Design the sequence.
């Protein structure tokens, strides 16, 4: 087996390397889409300081990575062919997080990570707030329809202020700014022709839908979607999502996924919207927690580095 190396995140090229793992192991049992990674990394400025991130590589490719949101939340991706690396990531998490309670969110279908969490003494939290992973094949897509006076169109660079304004109003209070959204637009695999908006008669953007396309797996991810509060239940989100889905299909997507938060008051309309658009669930997130203590060694673990680090 090739030697394992570990290094800290050093910039956008490393995000690409992390995305390459997400693409390589993409399946219905995989928690992260390449677009999710770009959005989470760039939507807010200052992520570098808030989110310590480490990559594990073997044979010239990334085989696992961990991303901490300080003080104590971990996201990770582990190649299912190297399940023991989950313990490496948990060890680094324990050393780096600053919270007394550690929280890890994974997909129920990521069996190898769930098994490692249980082995390390993490306990499943029974919170009803979670994300439902939903998908839809891009066949039989209805045509989008907007009310008279509204216009559906993709975003162009000059729209930056309006594009950011609709996001900030939907998600108030929001940390998305014009500079941070410019970073989103510069990130791979952002494509302006998949960033759609509904323009209201007064010129504001009333609704938006951004789709990220993973060309290798022919799957688009909707993230984010929103309608200004004063324009809700007029069919605008339905229309802007359909327009973006048609564009994604045209660009090569065969399927779309979306991860609405369930039982959160700010997102009450999300699941009904996606079900109305024909999305159906295939997995859900689970959150595991535990207080800090030593992690037991993994039986047959091939990694001396991890064992040394934890001594
Ligand atoms: C979710 C959201 C985008 C819906 O926008 P919208 O423009 O009001 O949605 P539409 O009018 O296009 O709704 C289409 C259908 O979705 C369903 N739906 C949408 N919002 C709903 C709600 N609050 N309750 C129940 N069903 C809802 C309905 O079936 C609706 O059709 P109908 O009005 O004919 O019954 C909007 O409420 C919003 O921006 N919420 C905050 C941000 C968010 O949660 N974004 C999604 C997750 S990224």
Sequence:
């Amino acid at each position: 087996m090739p030697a394992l190396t570990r290094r800290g995140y050093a910039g956008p090229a490393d995000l690409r390397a992390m995305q390459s793992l997400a693409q390589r192991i993409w399946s219905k049992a995989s928690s992260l889409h390449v677009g999710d990674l770009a959005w989470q990394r760039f939507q807010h400025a200052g992520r570098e300081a808030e989110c310590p991130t480490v990559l594990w590589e073997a044979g010239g490719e990334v085989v696992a990575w961990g991303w901490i949101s300080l003080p104590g939340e971990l996201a990770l991706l582990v190649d299912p062919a190297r399940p023991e690396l989950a313990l490496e990531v948990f060890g680094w998490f324990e050393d780096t997080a600053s919270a007394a309670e550690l929280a890890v969110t994974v997909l129920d279908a990521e069996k190898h990570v769930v098994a490692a969490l249980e082995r390390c003494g993490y306990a499943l939290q029974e919170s009803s707030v979670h994300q439902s992973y939903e998908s839809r094949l891009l066949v039989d897509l209805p045509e989008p329809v907007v009310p008279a006076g509204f216009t559906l169109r993709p975003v162009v660079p000059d729209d930056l202020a309006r594009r950011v304004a609709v996001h900030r109003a939907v998600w108030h209070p929001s940390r998305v700014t014009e500079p941070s959204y410019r970073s989103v637009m510069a990130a791979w695999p952002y494509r302006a022709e998949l960033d759609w908006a509904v323009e209201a008669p007064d010129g504001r953007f009333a609704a938006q839908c951004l789709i990220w396309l993973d060309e290798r797996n022919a799957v688009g991810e909707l993230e984010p979607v929103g309608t200004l509060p004063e324009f809700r239940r007029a069919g605008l989100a339905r229309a802007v999502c359909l327009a973006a889905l048609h564009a994604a299909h045209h660009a090569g997507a065969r399927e779309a996924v979306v991860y609405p938060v369930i039982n959160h008051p700010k997102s009450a309309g999300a699941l009904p919207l996606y079900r109305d658009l024909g999305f159906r669930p295939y997995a859900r997130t689970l959150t595991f927690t535990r207080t800090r203590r030593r992690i037991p060694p993994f039986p047959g673990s091939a990694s001396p580095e991890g064992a040394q680090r934890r001594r």
Residues 170, 207, 224-227, 232-238, 260, 266-270, 272-273, 276 surround coenzyme A (CB under 6 Å). Residues 45 and 210 are 19 Å apart (CA to CA). Confidence is low (pLDDT under 50) at residues 301-311.
